[in-house]
Amino acid sequence: MNRYDLIVIGTGPAGLHAAIQAAKLGRRVAAIERQKVIGGVCVNTGTIPSKAVREAILYLSGIRQRDFYGSSYTVKPEITMEDITQRVSHVIRAERDVIHGHFKRNHIDLHYGQARFLSPHRIAVDTLTGQTDEYEADFFMVCVGTRPARSPQFPVDGKDIHDADTILNMERLPRSLTIIGAGVVGVEYACMFAALGIPVTIIEARPRMLDNIDEEIVEALQFHMREMDVVFSLGEKCEKVYVNERGDVLIETESQKLVRAETVLYAVGRTGNTEELNLPAAGLRADHRDRIQVNEHYQTEAPHIYAAGDVIGFPALASVSMEQGRMAACHAFGLDCQADPRLFPYGIYTIPEISYVGRNERELTEAKVPYATGVARYRESARGMLIGDIKGMLKLLFHREDHRLLGVQILGEGASELVHIGQAVMSFDGPVDYFVNTVFNYPTLAECYKRAAFTGLNKLG
């Protein structure tokens, strides 16, 4: 029987980075992957494919150039699903190759099959060839990710009714799309399909979309989405979805509305992939959504078993999962490894994209922190005009007394790149004055930091 210092279950971002970190510390490491391909949801059905689709749509639809060439401008008059998925296949293959290279260079053993615990320090792996292998380890890392939540009222069939795992398998683009759920996945796909001129309706039980994001940013995004003819039905609970005899998909709401669409995307929540792990054999249990609870070091109820990534819940972002996996491996092998969760950046790839770090206005208000804001608009920036983004905005939140930067909220082209400037300043408790006294390249979007800082400080008199 093979014995390892660490066995990582799952090869998504958390599992990959946990395995690499442990290997860099000279430990013997194995990774178990239940699929035929590595990379987890991130590479195969989630983050990478959806962002590849987004980039393909942004290019083919010509939406970035419409401020110059008119609202009807497109690069390709008739865009097909094949046009879009060509890029997806290429990017996925490249990412898988990169991950294989990481495993090989770090001498991490890779085993394919479904893992299940036999005891706290032993697992069985039911391989893809039908045999069962057993392994022991001093430490385990559960990084099995999540899958879209399912409900009997919303029978996902991969044909008329989709979830995030099946939506990109459509043979052709739909004539209309209704999305149930206004979380990150639902809103991102709404923007993508709307950019193609497809009528999109979003139905959400909560009164607003993207709850954890600054309200001003969400309002601006919603305005731009409405400009793309997205229809919002917020505060509306769906009762059931079904296909009628004519092949139309119908959505019945709690308020007795009947919404008709050719295709439906069900994007309400995700559930952990833990049901086949036989957690009780290791002294563990999952919550009502099959997720695993951990402490601040990512340890489970069994201290030698760690969990990281989407399977532990919020924020369920690839970037955060990578760091969680790395920090968990460091803790397991006694290495001091610190990362401040308050400085984790968040990126939402809507059109236009959103990114933020730190706290928003609601959080600062609830905490009774005296703060001021400064806003810069892309349209006031030469770079914004050059790239045709006159909708973007950058918002700084800082302490009124000592001027410490408390949060950065960005909507617009390059938001997920720009946010790291603010993140770096926040990491050393820097003041907003830093941007006033810093020279930025011209013309760049980064100049918005200086403009926003001036605007905010001028408010203080």
Identify the notable features of this structure and list them briefly.
461 residues, FAD/NAD(P)-binding domain, 21 strands
Structural account:
By secondary structure, the protein is an alpha/beta fold. The protein folds into three domains: 2-146 and 271-342, FAD/NAD(P)-binding domain; 161-268, FAD/NAD(P)-binding domain, CATH 3.50.50.60; 352-459, Enolase-like, domain 1 (2-Layer Sandwich), CATH 3.30.390.30. 31% of the residues lie in helices and 25% in strands. Strands 1-2-3-4-5 form a five-stranded mixed β-barrel. Strands 7-14-8-9-10 form a five-stranded parallel beta sheet. Helix 6 (184-195) links the parallel strand 8 (177-180) and strand 9. Helix 1 (13-24) packs parallel to helix 8, helix 3 packs antiparallel against helix 5 (81-105) and helix 3 (47-61) runs parallel beside helix 6.
* Estimated structural class: alpha/beta
Spans of at least 5 consecutive residues whose pLDDT stays below 50 are none
Provide the β-strand percentage band. Answer: 15-25%
By CATH's scheme, which homologous superfamily of the largest domain applies?
A: FAD/NAD(P)-binding domain
CATH fold descriptor of the largest domain: FAD/NAD(P)-binding domain
Tell me the span between the first and last alpha carbons: 72 Å
Main β-sheet, spatial strand arrangement: 1-2-3-4-5
> How many distinct folded domains?
3
Instruction: Give the number of DSSP strands.
Output: 21
- Count up the helices: 13
Broad CATH class of the largest domain: Alpha Beta
Shape: globular
Rg, rounded, reads: 23 Å
Supply the CATH architecture of the largest domain.
3-Layer(bba) Sandwich
Mean pLDDT: 93
Helical amount = 25-40%
Largest sheet composition: 5 strands, mixed, barrel
